[in-house]
Amino acid sequence: MDLSAVIIAVAGVAGTLGGSLLTQRGSERTRLREIELVRGQEETHQSRVLRRTCYVELNRDARQFTTALNRHLHVLRERGVEEADRVALEEAKDAHRDRYSEAQMIAPDAVLVRVSAVNQALNKVYGQVKRLERGEPGPDETMETAERDRQVVWGMLRAMRAEMRHDLGVSAGGSADGQGADQDSF
């Protein structure tokens, strides 16, 4: 056997083995890319589900806090506030606070702007209501100003909800146009 035949045979075997190794490596890289893509899609989906759950609960709890403030104002006008009234208002405030804290960790900045505005407005009305309840209103604080400020919250809730829906891809725009009846009436 001559040396050139051996070299050709070795090169053929090496080429065959090298080709299969290169094919295997290429297919591993493709598989890893596919796994990363699927993982990214799953993370995006999980993030959206987490935000949607947070938004639903925050919207509900902010509306319930607003309604509880409305009820408390009615109680202040109609009769003295009882312990059950105070407890109901505190529970609504605490539920909203918990959802707001969660949203601070999950929601993107555009949503947080709206969420923070609602939170500040609700806390402002809450402070007015509690001062009125104690008979120690601040300057220019009356039942009427508290009611007016509470009414403003409904428009802020619509804007917050629109921004959340936009973030979730449910609606095209993030700004609320003031349409839709969101108010609980009493």
Q: What is this structure, in a nutshell?
A:
Helix content is 82%, strand content 0%. By secondary structure, it is mostly helical.
Keywords:
single chain, 186 residues, mainly alpha, 0% strand, disordered C terminus
Structure description:
The chain is mainly alpha-helical and 186 residues long. The protein is built from 4 helices and no strands. Helix 1 runs antiparallel to helix 2 and helix 1 packs antiparallel against helix 4. The radius of gyration is 30 Å and the shape is rod-shaped. 23% of the residues are buried.
Which SSEs are present, and which pair or pack?
Elements: H1 3-78, H2 83-106, H3 109-134, H4 143-168
Strand count, sense and closure of the main sheet?
none
Number of helices: 4
> Any low-confidence stretches, pLDDT <50, length ≥5?
176-186
Average pLDDT metric: 83
Structural class: mainly alpha
Order of helices and strands: HHHH
Strand content of the residues, in percent? under 5%
Span from first to last CA? Answer: 105 Å
Q: Roughly how many Å is the radius of gyration?
A: 30 Å
Give the overall form: rod-shaped
What is the helix fraction of residues, given as a range? over 70%
Strand segment count: 0
